[in-house]
Amino acid sequence: NRPVLIAPSLLAANFLELGKAAAMLNESEADWFHLDVMDGRFVPNISFGLPVISQISKVAKKTCDVHLMIEEPEKYAEAFQKAGANMLTVHYEACPHLHRNIQQIKSLGMKAGVALNPHTPVGLLENIIRDVDMVLIMSVNPGFGGQSFIEQTYHKIAQLRQLITDSNAHALIEVDGGVSADNAGQLVQAGANVLVAGSAVFASADPAKTISELKSAAVA
Ligand code: DX5
Ligand code: ZN
């Protein structure tokens, strides 16, 4: 039985009440805080950055999983480590020197992840899969919460699970975008370990209860 972690994305929280959202996550069955950083360059949207993350990480009692949707992430890796990131994920498409970026993140003492846009094939990770702690499969185009899940993702997760097994690697598989209790079970069946959910959690009437429903739906 593979462990399945739930990582609610604060992108969908009420930013005027981030403290309340953090307290709710601390008390809930959530495993990680997922923090989405957008630069208006790599993705066509701007979210929040270092000052917000350093305040959240101070109150978070759980792993801070920072998803960088930015160009030149190597310029900011150290700053995100200082801001309290425990996991730092960079995009394959933003990193011509991905191997160096991954080593940099690990040498700063963080877990290192690589994210793939929906069109980026899993096979491109063949020569880096043993170096990363996590692969984030985007199941929507990055930049916005609340989009609908791309069905092709199941196949991609299965391909990645096969690559990890064949390579004797240990990377976690995180899925991000359009995740809800309706597809959580199938995602885990395909091979996912970590489920990110933004609007499914924060747009629901009872976010803590939704997290708990996701957790039960995600049992492998
Ligand atoms: C999208 C972000 C996601 C987003 C998911 O670019 O990476 O983490 O918050 O939101 P939902 O769960 O609403 O698709
Ligand atoms: Zn994300």
From TrEMBL:
GO terms for molecular function: D-ribulose-phosphate 3-epimerase activity; metal ion binding. Its EC number is 5.1.3.1. The active site is at D36 (proton acceptor), D176 (proton donor). Gene3D superfamilies: Aldolase class I (3.20.20.70). Substrate binds at S9, H67, G143, F144, G145, G146, D176, G177, G178, G198, S199. Coiled coil: none annotated. Binds 1 divalent metal cation per subunit. A divalent metal cation binds at H34, D36, H67, D176. It catalyses: D-ribulose 5-phosphate = D-xylulose 5-phosphate. Pfam families: Ribul_P_3_epim (PF00834). Pathway: Carbohydrate degradation. The keyword Lyase does not apply. Keywords: Carbohydrate metabolism, Cobalt, Isomerase, Manganese, Metal-binding, Zinc. One of its GO terms (cellular component) is cytoplasm. PROSITE patterns: RIBUL_P_3_EPIMER_1, RIBUL_P_3_EPIMER_2. One of its GO terms (biological process) is pentose-phosphate shunt. Its cofactor is Co(2+); Zn(2+); Mn(2+); Fe(2+). Catalyzes the reversible epimerization of D-ribulose 5-phosphate to D-xylulose 5-phosphate. NCBIfam families: PRK05581.1-4, rpe. Belongs to the ribulose-phosphate 3-epimerase family. This is Ribulose-phosphate 3-epimerase. It comes from Chitinophaga jiangningensis. The gene is rpe.
